[in-house]
Amino acid sequence: MTKAEVITKISEKTGIQKDDVTQTVEAFFKVVKDSMAEGENIYVRGFGSFINKKRAKKIARNISKNTAIVIDEHFVPSFKPSKVFIEKIKGSKKIKELEPQED
Question: Which family, according to UniProt (predicted)?
Fold first, then answer.
């Protein structure tokens, strides 16, 4: 599902104009990105957490030049779903229908 499809679905369910929904969704994403860039984590009860995960400094290999390179410690954005979210997905009949059957 794309962002445009999400916006359309929200607009249909709430009756709010698509333009207003688009502005709201874009504002939400901007707040999440800006807050995480400032080092803040975001916790949405019943949905999940947007957190910054620290990656340690490590030595990697450049295969084409056969040299070692150092990757400094850095942070990467991560999403951790809540228990409620996880249970909803685990119990989803639709996902179980999409699962390939083993012979």
Answer: Belongs to the bacterial histone-like protein family.
Residues 60 and 81 in one domain: yes
50 and 85 co-located in one domain: yes
Dist CA 52 CA 36 (whole Å): 7
What's the domain count of the chain? 2
CATH number at 63 reads 4.10.520.10
Q: 51: closest CA among 26, 84, 76?
A: 76
Q: Which residue has the tokens 């929200």?
A: 10
- Report the candidate in 18, 95, 81, 6 with the shortest Cα–Cα distance to residue 50: 81
For residue range 52-70, list pLDDT tens digits in order: 999 999 999 988 998 999 9
pTM to 2 decimal places: 0.73
- For residue 43, what are the β-bridge partners? 49
On whether the CB atoms of residues 24 and 45 are closer than 8 A, the answer is no
